[in-house]
Amino acid sequence: MTGHITPAYEEVAEAVLDAAARPLPEDAAMAARRTLYNVLAVALGAADSPEVTRLAAALATSSGVPAGPGVAGYADAPGAALLTGFAAHLDDFDDTHLATVIHPGAAVLGAAWSAGWTAEQGTGLLTAFALGCEIQLRLGLAVTPDHYERGWHITGTCGVIGAAVTAGLLGGLGRDALAGALRLASLRTVGHREAFGTEVKPFHAGKAAANGVVAARESAFGASTARALPDLSHLLLALAPGDRNPSLLLDGLGSHWEVVANTFKPYPCGIVAHPGIDAAILAHREGVRPAGVARVRYVCHPLVPELMGRLDPRTGLEARFSAVHGVAAGLARGAGGLAEFSDAAVIDPELSSMRARTELCPDEAIPRDAATLEIEAVDGSVTRWPVAHARGSLLRPLTDSELIDKADALVPGRARPLWDAVIRLGHEVTPAAVQALLEPVTQEVEAR
User: Fold this and answer.
1) Last residue of a domain, one of 346, 362, 387
2) Residue 50: exposure state from Cβ atoms within 10 A (0-12, 13-18, ≥19)
3) Are 340 and 409 in contact (CB under 8 A)?
4) Are 133 and 169 in contact (CB under 8 A)?
5) 222-229 — which CB contacts under 8 Å span 24+ positions?
6) Of 30, 63, 356, 387, which shows the fewest CB atoms inside 10 Å?
7) Average confidence score pLDDT of the chain
8) Is residue 393 one of the residues assigned to a domain?
9) Are strands 358-362 and 293-300 parallel, antiparallel or unpaired?
């Protein structure tokens, strides 16, 4: 512990309710809208995947909450939260807060989907979504970097707290009940990085959403752990046995918004590999092709081999955690979309051969959003392809038009109407009107 005082659950709940009672600042509101739009489009795009289809069948009920964006049928509230969070994180195409490597939108969307889409006004939904993102990001900062470095999947472990905030606010919980929801949620953290490259990774986000919803419901009906858990010390200790800074949870809450630092992925894979893909695509555009390449030195931040070090992926999900695969796809195809991270792309002989000729070269001096490819041609010449800031990073963010284009590739024809609705949510548009745009997908996305 760094010596900072750990806040009681009641303090956190009171601060959240105080922030929720005030209008969102313009920058936070826009960040929340962009996050909501992106994660809805990604979840909708994954709705017809075999993984989502299987989970939807397992969770199906005859009535209840719509199962998830683009998914036919119903589930109970925790089931809908689980399915929605799972779909939103399945393709690793959602949002990322680079300082913590949290993907805040998925778990919070799951909680919001199951608890907030029948409201008449969208202002409360947007605020609850924004604060759910905000609290999990602040918790992530309080335990960074120790927690992630010890092998925990921070999206799952912190996501349940954000989901409880969103579900609690949408459920109209008062201070004591919301504090109880946070206590209960803090006993349901989940997620290990060993699951990366498998279906279990997106299940972490879905389960965080479901656990947050259940915690809010249990607290509303009087469940309590007040005597056992007076403050967040036990949670912080579990998440980060080393240095941590609990003051980051509440300092400036309502005036400073960490969600403004959230970013959106242009490629469906771990974000630390994005600058390498950018560099490979740039080289491809200048005429570099795998047939003319002897080897590639990929100079990158140490998190790249740590998180994305798979050298020989066997599935599309595994390829999302293979930085050398992303470079191979960029050099061979000049792209890094869902098609480049499909099962078919993984077994493409050209990409497989290029992966084998790519070496990861970690360097502590390289920022997380930067990389350089040193490409040695078969004739012995060497060219360097540096990227100072990856496309989609905080210093090179996707524009609104690029975000809409990304969504259009996932859900053709739906991107612009969905954007227009989310941007006006809480003004002329109700949550129910947004949900009406998220009916089951009828046209399969080719890229999958």
Assistant:
1) 387
2) exposed
3) no
4) no
5) 223/180, 223/184, 224/180, 224/183, 225/180, 225/183, 225/184, 225/187, 226/179, 226/180, 226/183, 229/9, 229/183, 229/186, 229/187
6) 63
7) 93
8) no
9) parallel
pLDDT tens digits, one per residue of 184-205: 999 899 899 999 999 999 999 9
Beta carbons of 169 and 112 less than 8 angstroms apart: no
What is d(CA 412, CA 444) in angstroms, rounded to the nearest whole number? 10
**Among 353, 375, 371, residue whose Cα is nearest residue 363:** 371
Locate tokens 């972490």: which residue? Answer: 204
Q: Is residue 1 part of a domain?
A: no
Sign of CA dihedral 185, 187, 193, 198: negative
Backbone angles phi, psi at 95, to 5 degrees: -90, 160
CATH code of residue 240: 1.10.4100.10
End-to-end CA distance of the chain, in Å? 45
CA dist 399 and 389 (Å) reads 15
The range of the structural domain enclosing residue 293 comes to 271-387
Distance, CA of 375 to CA of 211 (rounded, Å): 47
Q: What is the pLDDT of residues 250-278, one digit of tens each?
A: 999 999 999 999 999 999 999 999 999 99
What 8-state DSSP symbol labels residue 273? G
